[in-house]
Amino acid sequence: MREALLESAIDHFGRCGFEGAATRAIAADCGTAMSSITYHFGGKEGLYLAVAEHIAAQLAEHHRDALEAIAVTPVKTREDAIERLVAVLDALAATMLGAKAARWARFIIREQQEPTEAFDRIYSIAMRPMTEAFIPLIAAARPDLSDREQRASGFLLFGQALALRAGRASLCRVLGLEHLDAEAELLLRRRLATHTRAILSAGPETLP
Amino acid sequence: MREALLESAIDHFGRCGFEGAATRAIAADCGTAMSSITYHFGGKEGLYLAVAEHIAAQLAEHHRDALEAIAVTPVKTREDAIERLVAVLDALAATMLGAKAARWARFIIREQQEPTEAFDRIYSIAMRPMTEAFIPLIAAARPDLSDREQRASGFLLFGQALALRAGRASLCRVLGLEHLDAEAELLLRRRLATHTRAILSAGPETLP
DNA sequence: GTCTATACTACGATAGAC
DNA sequence: GTCTATCGTAGTATAGAC
Hints:
Two copies of one chain form a homodimer.
Chain A: H1 2-20, H2 23-29, H3 35-41, H4 44-71, H5 78-97, H6 99-113, H7 117-141, H8 147-166, H9 168-175, H10 182-201
Helix pairs in contact in A: 1-2, 1-4, 1-6, 3-4, 4-5, 4-7, 5-7, 5-8, 5-10, 7-8
Chain A binds a DNA duplex through helix 3.
Protein backbone atom coordinates (compact mmCIF):
# COMPACT_ATOMS: atom_id res chain seq x y z
CA MET A 1 0.00 0.00 0.00
CA ARG A 2 2.89 2.33 0.80
CA GLU A 3 4.18 1.91 -2.76
CA ALA A 4 0.74 2.45 -4.29
CA LEU A 5 0.25 5.64 -2.34
CA LEU A 6 3.63 6.95 -3.51
CA GLU A 7 2.83 6.25 -7.16
CA SER A 8 -0.56 7.88 -6.90
CA ALA A 9 0.91 10.83 -5.02
CA ILE A 10 3.47 11.51 -7.79
CA ASP A 11 0.60 12.26 -10.14
CA HIS A 12 -1.55 14.21 -7.74
CA PHE A 13 1.27 16.40 -6.41
CA GLY A 14 2.67 16.84 -9.90
CA ARG A 15 -0.61 17.94 -11.38
CA CYS A 16 -2.08 19.95 -8.52
CA GLY A 17 0.92 20.99 -6.45
CA PHE A 18 1.32 20.44 -2.75
CA GLU A 19 -1.62 22.55 -1.64
CA GLY A 20 -3.82 21.59 -4.55
CA ALA A 21 -3.44 17.84 -4.12
CA ALA A 22 -6.11 16.14 -2.04
CA THR A 23 -5.03 13.39 0.31
CA ARG A 24 -8.49 11.89 0.13
CA ALA A 25 -8.18 11.64 -3.67
CA ILE A 26 -4.67 10.14 -3.48
CA ALA A 27 -5.93 7.47 -1.09
CA ALA A 28 -9.09 6.85 -3.11
CA ASP A 29 -6.96 6.06 -6.20
CA CYS A 30 -5.39 3.25 -4.19
CA GLY A 31 -8.71 1.98 -2.93
CA THR A 32 -7.85 2.92 0.61
CA ALA A 33 -8.77 5.60 3.12
CA MET A 34 -7.05 8.91 3.66
CA SER A 35 -5.93 7.92 7.13
CA SER A 36 -3.59 5.37 5.54
CA ILE A 37 -1.44 8.35 4.58
CA THR A 38 -1.28 9.47 8.17
CA TYR A 39 -0.34 5.95 9.14
CA HIS A 40 2.38 5.39 6.54
CA PHE A 41 3.85 8.87 6.20
CA GLY A 42 2.71 10.84 9.22
CA GLY A 43 0.70 13.26 7.10
CA LYS A 44 0.60 15.11 3.80
CA GLU A 45 4.03 16.68 4.21
CA GLY A 46 5.64 13.36 5.05
CA LEU A 47 4.09 11.86 1.94
CA TYR A 48 5.43 14.73 -0.15
CA LEU A 49 9.00 14.22 1.01
CA ALA A 50 8.69 10.46 0.55
CA VAL A 51 7.54 11.07 -3.02
CA ALA A 52 10.62 13.22 -3.64
CA GLU A 53 12.91 10.44 -2.46
CA HIS A 54 10.93 7.88 -4.43
CA ILE A 55 11.31 9.88 -7.64
CA ALA A 56 14.98 10.55 -6.98
CA ALA A 57 15.67 6.85 -6.51
CA GLN A 58 13.83 5.91 -9.72
CA LEU A 59 15.60 8.66 -11.64
CA ALA A 60 19.00 7.62 -10.35
CA GLU A 61 18.28 4.01 -11.26
CA HIS A 62 17.07 5.10 -14.69
CA HIS A 63 20.35 6.88 -15.46
CA ARG A 64 22.65 4.43 -13.75
CA ASP A 65 23.56 2.57 -16.93
CA ALA A 66 24.24 5.69 -18.94
CA LEU A 67 26.43 7.12 -16.19
CA GLU A 68 28.35 3.89 -15.69
CA ALA A 69 28.98 3.66 -19.41
CA ILE A 70 30.71 7.02 -19.52
CA ALA A 71 32.67 6.55 -16.29
CA VAL A 72 34.03 3.06 -16.76
CA THR A 73 37.18 3.89 -18.76
CA PRO A 74 39.39 6.97 -18.60
CA VAL A 75 38.84 9.62 -21.23
CA LYS A 76 41.63 9.63 -23.81
CA THR A 77 40.90 12.32 -26.36
CA ARG A 78 38.69 15.38 -26.77
CA GLU A 79 36.69 13.50 -29.40
CA ASP A 80 36.16 10.65 -26.95
CA ALA A 81 34.86 13.08 -24.30
CA ILE A 82 32.56 14.73 -26.82
CA GLU A 83 31.02 11.44 -27.95
CA ARG A 84 30.45 10.41 -24.34
CA LEU A 85 28.68 13.71 -23.68
CA VAL A 86 26.60 13.23 -26.79
CA ALA A 87 25.59 9.79 -25.50
CA VAL A 88 24.66 11.07 -22.03
CA LEU A 89 22.64 13.96 -23.40
CA ASP A 90 20.88 11.65 -25.83
CA ALA A 91 19.93 9.35 -22.96
CA LEU A 92 18.75 12.37 -21.00
CA ALA A 93 16.72 13.62 -23.96
CA ALA A 94 15.14 10.19 -24.38
CA THR A 95 14.18 10.28 -20.72
CA MET A 96 12.72 13.76 -21.01
CA LEU A 97 10.71 12.76 -24.06
CA GLY A 98 9.46 9.54 -22.48
CA ALA A 99 6.23 8.99 -20.61
CA LYS A 100 7.76 8.07 -17.27
CA ALA A 101 9.63 11.36 -17.14
CA ALA A 102 6.40 13.29 -17.61
CA ARG A 103 5.19 12.20 -14.19
CA TRP A 104 8.53 12.82 -12.51
CA ALA A 105 9.10 16.10 -14.28
CA ARG A 106 5.78 17.59 -13.26
CA PHE A 107 6.86 17.09 -9.68
CA ILE A 108 10.48 18.19 -10.10
CA ILE A 109 9.83 21.26 -12.23
CA ARG A 110 7.42 22.54 -9.62
CA GLU A 111 10.12 22.11 -7.00
CA GLN A 112 12.65 24.02 -9.10
CA GLN A 113 10.43 27.07 -9.11
CA GLU A 114 10.02 27.14 -5.36
CA PRO A 115 12.59 24.72 -3.92
CA THR A 116 11.77 23.07 -0.61
CA GLU A 117 13.50 20.32 1.31
CA ALA A 118 12.16 17.93 -1.31
CA PHE A 119 14.42 19.47 -3.96
CA ASP A 120 17.49 18.92 -1.77
CA ARG A 121 16.70 15.23 -1.69
CA ILE A 122 16.11 14.98 -5.43
CA TYR A 123 19.25 16.93 -6.21
CA SER A 124 21.57 14.99 -3.95
CA ILE A 125 20.22 11.56 -4.89
CA ALA A 126 19.57 11.93 -8.62
CA MET A 127 21.18 15.07 -10.00
CA ARG A 128 24.49 15.44 -8.24
CA PRO A 129 25.84 12.11 -9.55
CA MET A 130 24.98 13.21 -13.07
CA THR A 131 26.64 16.60 -12.60
CA GLU A 132 29.75 15.01 -11.19
CA ALA A 133 30.06 12.76 -14.20
CA PHE A 134 29.20 15.53 -16.62
CA ILE A 135 31.56 18.34 -15.65
CA PRO A 136 34.82 16.35 -16.00
CA LEU A 137 33.77 15.37 -19.51
CA ILE A 138 33.16 19.01 -20.40
CA ALA A 139 36.57 19.79 -18.96
CA ALA A 140 38.12 17.12 -21.16
CA ALA A 141 36.28 18.35 -24.24
CA ARG A 142 36.94 22.03 -23.66
CA PRO A 143 40.13 22.44 -21.60
CA ASP A 144 40.39 26.01 -22.90
CA LEU A 145 37.43 27.09 -20.73
CA SER A 146 37.59 28.07 -17.07
CA ASP A 147 35.90 25.84 -14.52
CA ARG A 148 32.95 28.18 -14.26
CA GLU A 149 32.63 28.44 -18.05
CA GLN A 150 32.65 24.66 -18.25
CA ARG A 151 29.86 24.46 -15.69
CA ALA A 152 27.83 27.16 -17.41
CA SER A 153 28.21 25.47 -20.80
CA GLY A 154 27.38 22.12 -19.28
CA PHE A 155 24.20 23.48 -17.79
CA LEU A 156 23.14 25.12 -21.05
CA LEU A 157 23.71 21.84 -22.90
CA PHE A 158 21.71 20.09 -20.24
CA GLY A 159 19.07 22.81 -20.59
CA GLN A 160 18.30 21.85 -24.17
CA ALA A 161 17.21 18.42 -22.98
CA LEU A 162 15.40 19.87 -19.98
CA ALA A 163 13.40 22.17 -22.26
CA LEU A 164 12.04 19.14 -24.10
CA ARG A 165 10.03 18.52 -20.96
CA ALA A 166 9.72 21.94 -19.30
CA GLY A 167 8.62 23.64 -22.51
CA ARG A 168 6.80 20.73 -24.09
CA ALA A 169 3.55 22.60 -24.64
CA SER A 170 5.43 25.27 -26.58
CA LEU A 171 7.48 22.67 -28.42
CA CYS A 172 4.35 20.97 -29.76
CA ARG A 173 3.03 24.27 -31.03
CA VAL A 174 6.33 25.27 -32.65
CA LEU A 175 6.45 21.95 -34.50
CA GLY A 176 2.77 22.24 -35.33
CA LEU A 177 1.94 18.91 -33.69
CA GLU A 178 -0.79 17.89 -31.29
CA HIS A 179 1.51 15.35 -29.64
CA LEU A 180 5.16 14.49 -30.26
CA ASP A 181 5.39 11.37 -32.41
CA ALA A 182 8.33 8.98 -32.66
CA GLU A 183 9.62 10.74 -35.78
CA ALA A 184 9.66 14.13 -34.07
CA GLU A 185 11.40 12.67 -31.02
CA LEU A 186 14.14 11.16 -33.17
CA LEU A 187 14.56 14.43 -35.04
CA LEU A 188 14.93 16.37 -31.78
CA ARG A 189 17.48 13.92 -30.42
CA ARG A 190 19.50 14.13 -33.63
CA ARG A 191 19.45 17.92 -33.56
CA LEU A 192 20.54 17.88 -29.92
CA ALA A 193 23.47 15.61 -30.77
CA THR A 194 24.46 17.91 -33.63
CA HIS A 195 24.26 20.95 -31.34
CA THR A 196 26.32 19.21 -28.70
CA ARG A 197 29.08 18.40 -31.16
CA ALA A 198 29.02 21.92 -32.58
CA ILE A 199 29.32 23.51 -29.15
CA LEU A 200 31.98 21.18 -27.83
CA SER A 201 34.04 20.93 -31.01
CA ALA A 202 34.50 24.68 -31.12
CA GLY A 203 37.55 25.86 -29.26
CA PRO A 204 40.71 27.92 -29.39
CA GLU A 205 42.13 25.89 -32.26
CA THR A 206 39.04 26.26 -34.45
CA LEU A 207 37.80 29.66 -33.24
CA PRO A 208 40.90 31.67 -32.34
CA MET B 1 -7.89 47.57 -7.60
CA ARG B 2 -8.31 45.33 -10.64
CA GLU B 3 -4.61 45.82 -11.44
CA ALA B 4 -3.54 45.20 -7.84
CA LEU B 5 -5.49 41.96 -7.71
CA LEU B 6 -3.86 40.77 -10.93
CA GLU B 7 -0.36 41.50 -9.64
CA SER B 8 -1.05 39.76 -6.36
CA ALA B 9 -2.65 36.82 -8.14
CA ILE B 10 0.45 36.27 -10.33
CA ASP B 11 2.42 35.45 -7.20
CA HIS B 12 -0.22 33.39 -5.46
CA PHE B 13 -1.13 31.28 -8.50
CA GLY B 14 2.55 30.95 -9.42
CA ARG B 15 3.59 29.72 -6.01
CA CYS B 16 0.57 27.64 -5.03
CA GLY B 17 -1.07 26.70 -8.32
CA PHE B 18 -4.70 27.21 -9.16
CA GLU B 19 -6.18 25.00 -6.48
CA GLY B 20 -3.60 25.92 -3.86
CA ALA B 21 -4.04 29.66 -4.16
CA ALA B 22 -6.57 31.23 -1.82
CA THR B 23 -8.71 34.06 -3.14
CA ARG B 24 -8.97 35.42 0.39
CA ALA B 25 -5.18 35.69 0.61
CA ILE B 26 -4.93 37.32 -2.82
CA ALA B 27 -7.50 39.92 -1.81
CA ALA B 28 -5.95 40.45 1.62
CA ASP B 29 -2.61 41.35 -0.05
CA CYS B 30 -4.45 44.19 -1.76
CA GLY B 31 -6.18 45.31 1.41
CA THR B 32 -9.57 44.35 0.05
CA ALA B 33 -12.14 41.63 0.54
CA MET B 34 -12.38 38.38 -1.38
CA SER B 35 -15.69 39.38 -2.94
CA SER B 36 -13.83 42.04 -4.95
CA ILE B 37 -12.55 39.14 -7.05
CA THR B 38 -16.11 38.04 -7.75
CA TYR B 39 -16.98 41.59 -8.73
CA HIS B 40 -14.01 42.23 -11.02
CA PHE B 41 -13.44 38.79 -12.51
CA GLY B 42 -16.54 36.78 -11.85
CA GLY B 43 -14.71 34.28 -9.67
CA LYS B 44 -11.45 32.44 -9.17
CA GLU B 45 -11.33 30.98 -12.66
CA GLY B 46 -11.98 34.35 -14.28
CA LEU B 47 -9.14 35.81 -12.25
CA TYR B 48 -6.83 33.01 -13.38
CA LEU B 49 -7.51 33.61 -17.06
CA ALA B 50 -7.16 37.36 -16.58
CA VAL B 51 -3.76 36.76 -14.97
CA ALA B 52 -2.69 34.72 -17.99
CA GLU B 53 -3.62 37.54 -20.34
CA HIS B 54 -1.99 40.09 -18.05
CA ILE B 55 1.29 38.17 -18.05
CA ALA B 56 1.11 37.59 -21.81
CA ALA B 57 0.64 41.31 -22.42
CA GLN B 58 3.56 42.26 -20.17
CA LEU B 59 5.77 39.62 -21.75
CA ALA B 60 4.88 40.76 -25.27
CA GLU B 61 5.59 44.37 -24.30
CA HIS B 62 8.87 43.32 -22.71
CA HIS B 63 10.09 41.69 -25.92
CA ARG B 64 8.58 44.19 -28.33
CA ASP B 65 11.80 46.18 -28.75
CA ALA B 66 13.98 43.13 -29.29
CA LEU B 67 11.56 41.72 -31.86
CA GLU B 68 11.20 45.00 -33.72
CA ALA B 69 14.96 45.37 -33.87
CA ILE B 70 15.39 42.06 -35.67
CA ALA B 71 12.43 42.52 -37.99
CA VAL B 72 12.95 46.09 -39.19
CA THR B 73 15.35 45.43 -42.07
CA PRO B 74 15.54 42.41 -44.38
CA VAL B 75 18.19 39.84 -43.57
CA LYS B 76 21.08 40.01 -46.02
CA THR B 77 23.63 37.38 -45.05
CA ARG B 78 23.87 34.25 -42.90
CA GLU B 79 26.15 36.16 -40.53
CA ASP B 80 23.55 38.89 -40.24
CA ALA B 81 20.85 36.35 -39.37
CA ILE B 82 23.12 34.68 -36.81
CA GLU B 83 23.92 37.94 -35.02
CA ARG B 84 20.23 38.84 -34.90
CA LEU B 85 19.47 35.46 -33.35
CA VAL B 86 22.28 35.97 -30.86
CA ALA B 87 20.75 39.31 -29.91
CA VAL B 88 17.24 37.90 -29.47
CA LEU B 89 18.45 34.97 -27.40
CA ASP B 90 20.54 37.31 -25.26
CA ALA B 91 17.50 39.46 -24.62
CA LEU B 92 15.52 36.35 -23.79
CA ALA B 93 18.23 35.10 -21.45
CA ALA B 94 18.33 38.48 -19.72
CA THR B 95 14.58 38.25 -19.22
CA MET B 96 14.81 34.71 -17.86
CA LEU B 97 17.55 35.73 -15.44
CA GLY B 98 15.72 38.86 -14.29
CA ALA B 99 13.44 39.20 -11.30
CA LYS B 100 10.29 40.09 -13.21
CA ALA B 101 10.49 36.85 -15.18
CA ALA B 102 10.61 34.82 -12.00
CA ARG B 103 7.02 35.76 -11.20
CA TRP B 104 5.82 35.21 -14.75
CA ALA B 105 7.74 32.01 -15.16
CA ARG B 106 6.32 30.37 -12.06
CA PHE B 107 2.90 30.82 -13.60
CA ILE B 108 3.84 29.87 -17.16
CA ILE B 109 5.94 26.83 -16.35
CA ARG B 110 3.08 25.41 -14.33
CA GLU B 111 0.83 25.87 -17.34
CA GLN B 112 3.30 24.11 -19.63
CA GLN B 113 3.13 20.99 -17.51
CA GLU B 114 -0.65 20.81 -17.60
CA PRO B 115 -1.82 23.28 -20.25
CA THR B 116 -5.27 24.82 -19.83
CA GLU B 117 -7.04 27.57 -21.71
CA ALA B 118 -4.66 30.00 -19.98
CA PHE B 119 -1.72 28.58 -21.93
CA ASP B 120 -3.49 29.18 -25.23
CA ARG B 121 -3.79 32.85 -24.36
CA ILE B 122 -0.16 33.17 -23.26
CA TYR B 123 1.07 31.34 -26.33
CA SER B 124 -0.93 33.32 -28.86
CA ILE B 125 -0.26 36.72 -27.29
CA ALA B 126 3.36 36.41 -26.18
CA MET B 127 5.04 33.37 -27.70
CA ARG B 128 3.70 33.07 -31.21
CA PRO B 129 5.07 36.50 -32.27
CA MET B 130 8.48 35.47 -31.01
CA THR B 131 8.35 32.13 -32.82
CA GLU B 132 7.28 33.80 -36.04
CA ALA B 133 10.23 36.15 -35.89
CA PHE B 134 12.62 33.44 -34.82
CA ILE B 135 12.06 30.68 -37.37
CA PRO B 136 12.73 32.79 -40.49
CA LEU B 137 16.05 33.85 -38.99
CA ILE B 138 16.99 30.23 -38.38
CA ALA B 139 16.01 29.52 -41.97
CA ALA B 140 18.30 32.32 -43.14
CA ALA B 141 21.16 31.13 -40.95
CA ARG B 142 20.79 27.45 -41.80
CA PRO B 143 19.18 27.10 -45.24
CA ASP B 144 20.64 23.60 -45.43
CA LEU B 145 18.15 22.33 -42.82
CA SER B 146 14.59 21.22 -43.49
CA ASP B 147 11.76 23.31 -42.05
CA ARG B 148 11.23 20.84 -39.24
CA GLU B 149 14.94 20.69 -38.44
CA GLN B 150 15.00 24.48 -38.32
CA ARG B 151 12.10 24.50 -35.88
CA ALA B 152 13.65 21.79 -33.73
CA SER B 153 17.00 23.59 -33.62
CA GLY B 154 15.25 26.86 -32.88
CA PHE B 155 13.43 25.34 -29.96
CA LEU B 156 16.60 23.76 -28.55
CA LEU B 157 18.39 27.12 -28.78
CA PHE B 158 15.42 28.70 -27.07
CA GLY B 159 15.53 25.89 -24.51
CA GLN B 160 18.94 26.94 -23.25
CA ALA B 161 17.50 30.29 -22.22
CA LEU B 162 14.36 28.67 -20.85
CA ALA B 163 16.45 26.38 -18.66
CA LEU B 164 17.98 29.42 -16.97
CA ARG B 165 14.60 29.86 -15.37
CA ALA B 166 13.03 26.39 -15.37
CA GLY B 167 16.14 24.76 -13.93
CA ARG B 168 17.36 27.65 -11.84
CA ALA B 169 17.57 25.68 -8.60
CA SER B 170 19.83 23.14 -10.30
CA LEU B 171 21.83 25.86 -12.00
CA CYS B 172 22.69 27.50 -8.69
CA ARG B 173 23.89 24.20 -7.32
CA VAL B 174 25.96 23.37 -10.41
CA LEU B 175 27.69 26.75 -10.18
CA GLY B 176 28.05 26.35 -6.43
CA LEU B 177 26.19 29.59 -5.71
CA GLU B 178 23.43 30.44 -3.28
CA HIS B 179 21.99 33.00 -5.70
CA LEU B 180 23.04 34.01 -9.20
CA ASP B 181 25.10 37.20 -9.05
CA ALA B 182 25.63 39.70 -11.85
CA GLU B 183 28.95 38.10 -12.79
CA ALA B 184 27.38 34.66 -13.17
CA GLU B 185 24.52 36.08 -15.23
CA LEU B 186 26.94 37.76 -17.61
CA LEU B 187 28.96 34.57 -17.91
CA LEU B 188 25.86 32.55 -18.76
CA ARG B 189 24.75 35.04 -21.38
CA ARG B 190 28.19 35.00 -22.98
CA ARG B 191 28.25 31.22 -23.06
CA LEU B 192 24.78 31.19 -24.61
CA ALA B 193 25.92 33.60 -27.33
CA THR B 194 28.95 31.43 -28.02
CA HIS B 195 26.78 28.30 -28.21
CA THR B 196 24.36 30.04 -30.54
CA ARG B 197 27.12 31.03 -32.93
CA ALA B 198 28.66 27.55 -32.82
CA ILE B 199 25.33 25.86 -33.60
CA LEU B 200 24.29 28.25 -36.34
CA SER B 201 27.69 28.67 -37.95
CA ALA B 202 28.00 24.96 -38.50
CA GLY B 203 26.59 23.82 -41.78
CA PRO B 204 27.21 21.84 -44.95
CA GLU B 205 30.17 24.01 -45.90
CA THR B 206 31.92 23.68 -42.55
CA LEU B 207 30.76 20.19 -41.56
CA PRO B 208 30.37 18.25 -44.82
C1' DG C 1 -2.46 -2.35 9.48
C1' DT C 2 -6.58 -0.43 7.92
C1' DC C 3 -10.87 1.90 8.12
C1' DT C 4 -14.93 4.72 10.36
C1' DA C 5 -16.42 8.64 12.72
C1' DT C 6 -15.71 13.07 14.08
C1' DA C 7 -13.68 17.68 15.06
C1' DC C 8 -11.90 21.63 13.22
C1' DT C 9 -10.37 24.78 9.81
C1' DA C 10 -10.42 27.16 5.47
C1' DC C 11 -12.10 27.51 0.98
C1' DG C 12 -15.27 29.80 -2.86
C1' DA C 13 -19.69 31.64 -3.81
C1' DT C 14 -23.44 34.58 -2.87
C1' DA C 15 -26.70 37.96 -0.98
C1' DG C 16 -27.36 42.25 0.83
C1' DA C 17 -25.84 46.64 3.49
C1' DC C 18 -23.39 50.84 2.58
C1' DG D 1 -17.49 49.47 -6.08
C1' DT D 2 -16.56 47.61 -1.78
C1' DC D 3 -17.38 45.24 2.44
C1' DT D 4 -19.78 42.00 6.00
C1' DA D 5 -22.17 37.90 6.97
C1' DT D 6 -23.29 33.46 5.99
C1' DC D 7 -23.76 29.06 3.53
C1' DG D 8 -22.26 24.69 1.78
C1' DT D 9 -18.23 22.11 0.64
C1' DA D 10 -13.82 20.08 1.21
C1' DG D 11 -9.47 19.86 3.47
C1' DT D 12 -6.33 17.61 7.48
C1' DA D 13 -5.82 15.41 11.75
C1' DT D 14 -7.07 12.44 15.39
C1' DA D 15 -9.13 8.85 18.20
C1' DG D 16 -10.80 4.56 18.42
C1' DA D 17 -13.13 0.29 16.34
C1' DC D 18 -11.92 -3.85 13.87
